[in-house]
């Protein structure tokens, strides 16, 4: 694995903060399994976000146990042992020695020793912090150990009595980003913006959706050893733009099409998420521009609602009201804005939420509502998307000029102490600027060719 952005001390501080909230509990975190694409071909490994956040360890076949009551085993890693034969094929492993020396583990053992040592690590605890359902083998271990402790606890007085979800503590930590995390997300966003701009410059009628996908993803991957895609890239042209998670990317564009690209980079595991919609020919039709300007106005209204203390739901509500008024103006729905929202008639054309958290996962952890059901207030350090859209089917009951138009515009936003910071506007959203950018790579090539012939 290449180097990732944070040093062992950063991960140690995170573990310390986490353990301060666990009381007398012990926490277990398991690596994600390696996945097979087909037969003996594996998918490129991606570490578990929680395990990485707390340890920085990125190898598969790993279990971390955090035990606040045991100084010698406060941070124990069970890892794959060094294996010269396998390392010839798959690359170097840290092994127990590397786990201690490079990642700050107070104790480290081969993963094969997990079963014989886990009971002793858990026994002094009053609870186990573990995500049931995250690892089938660990689920069985934890269940069997709890059953055993239940039998022995009356006489020994030792052993945890229940399992608690670590996300109650960890999600809150991950939702409020550290300054270094914000820098990493800004860098990821800059890569994503370059990739979107590159695709827009490359666009021309007749280009394949897959070619635009290739330009986006090659820009991601060329940006560094830990850079790549945050999620499968969406390139939808024509009516494909009305399919929210269209990922076939198999159609050849035609003159007059809109192209919707929803793509995000991952850098050092931290994600960005941008959507831009543009005319492949370089000019919006009048109907396309009308819809685009409504979606852009909805995005700007939602962004303006982002500030510390504002309820999270204000973002969606601001965007939704602008979009619904646009639907009314276009003849897609009838009634007042409030009547349309009450009847949910708008959901035919705008059926998703406007925002989600962003971080180590593209749909990052974090609560959107409190225990009493009220929306969480925004806080400095939160990172989120704003992504309104209008998706008008090519149906007989909608005005003909709008049929088949799908538009989404998405940016990434950091909540700051005095408001917000938009970190993805290096790729334009203004319709005139969008038109000016589309196809410029081909125009430049043509200019060079004709200049050379002269």
UniProtKB/TrEMBL annotation:
PANTHER family, A to Z: XAA-PRO AMINOPEPTIDASE 3
Coiled coil regions in record: none
Family: Belongs to the peptidase M24B family.
Protein known as: Xaa-Pro aminopeptidase
GO biological process terms held by the UniProt record: proteolysis
Cofactors: Mn(2+)
Limits of the Aminopeptidase P N-terminal domain: 6-139
The protein's Enzyme Commission number: 3.4.11.9
SUPFAM superfamilies the UniProt entry points to: Creatinase/aminopeptidase (SSF55920), Creatinase/prolidase N-terminal domain (SSF53092)
């Amino acid at each position: 694995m290449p180097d990732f952005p944070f040093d062992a001390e950063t991960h140690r501080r995170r573990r310390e903060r986490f353990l301060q909230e666990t009381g007398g509990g012990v926490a277990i975190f398991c690596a994600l399994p390696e996945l097979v694409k087909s037969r003996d071909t594996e998918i490129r490994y991606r570490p578990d976000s929680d395990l990485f956040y707390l340890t920085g360890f990125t190898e598969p076949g790993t279990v971390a146990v955090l035990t606040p009551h045991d100084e010698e085993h406060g941070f124990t890693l069970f890892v794959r042992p060094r294996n010269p034969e396998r390392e010839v094929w798959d690359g170097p492993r840290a092994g127990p020695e590397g786990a201690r020396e490079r990642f700050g583990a107070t104790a480290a053992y081969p993963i094969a020793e997990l079963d014989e040592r886990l009971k002793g690590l858990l026994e002094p605890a009053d609870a186990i912090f573990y995500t049931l359902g995250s690892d089938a083998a660990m689920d069985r271990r934890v269940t069997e150990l709890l059953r055993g402790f239940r039998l022995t606890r009356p006489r020994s007085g030792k052993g945890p009595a229940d399992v608690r979800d670590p996300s109650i503590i960890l999600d809150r930590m991950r939702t409020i980003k550290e300054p270094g995390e914000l820098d990493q997300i800004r860098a990821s966003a800059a890569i994503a913006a370059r990739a979107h701009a590159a695709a827009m410059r490359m666009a021309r009628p007749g280009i394949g959706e897959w070619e635009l996908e290739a330009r986006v993803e090659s820009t991601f991957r060329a940006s560094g050893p830990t850079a790549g895609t945050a999620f499968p890239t969406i390139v939808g042209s024509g009516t494909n733009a009305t399919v929210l998670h269209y990922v076939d990317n198999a159609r050849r564009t035609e003159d007059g099409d809109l192209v919707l690209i929803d793509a995000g980079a991952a850098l050092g595991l931290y994600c960005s998420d941008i959507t831009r919609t543009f005319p492949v020919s370089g000019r919006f039709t009048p109907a396309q521009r009308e819809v685009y300007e409504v979606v852009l106005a909805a995005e700007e209204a939602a962004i303006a609602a982002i500030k510390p203390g504002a309820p999270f739901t204000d973002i969606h509500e601001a965007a939704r009201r602008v979009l619904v008024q646009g639907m009314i103006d276009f003849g897609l729905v009838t009634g007042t804005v409030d009547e349309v929202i009450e009847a949910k008639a708008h959901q035919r054309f705008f059926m998703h939420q406007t925002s989600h958290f962003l971080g180590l996962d593209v749909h990052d952890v974090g609560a959107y509502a409190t225990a009493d059901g009220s929306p969480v207030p925004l806080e400095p350090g939160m990172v989120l998307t704003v992504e309104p859209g209008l998706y008008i089917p090519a149906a007989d009951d909608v005005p003909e000029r709008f049929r088949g138009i799908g538009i989404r515009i998405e940016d990434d936003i950091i909540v700051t102490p005095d408001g917000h910071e938009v970190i993805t506007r290096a790729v334009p959203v203004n319709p005139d600027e969008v038109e000016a950018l589309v196809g410029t790579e081909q125009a430049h090539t043509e200019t060079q060719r004709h200049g050379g012939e002269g």
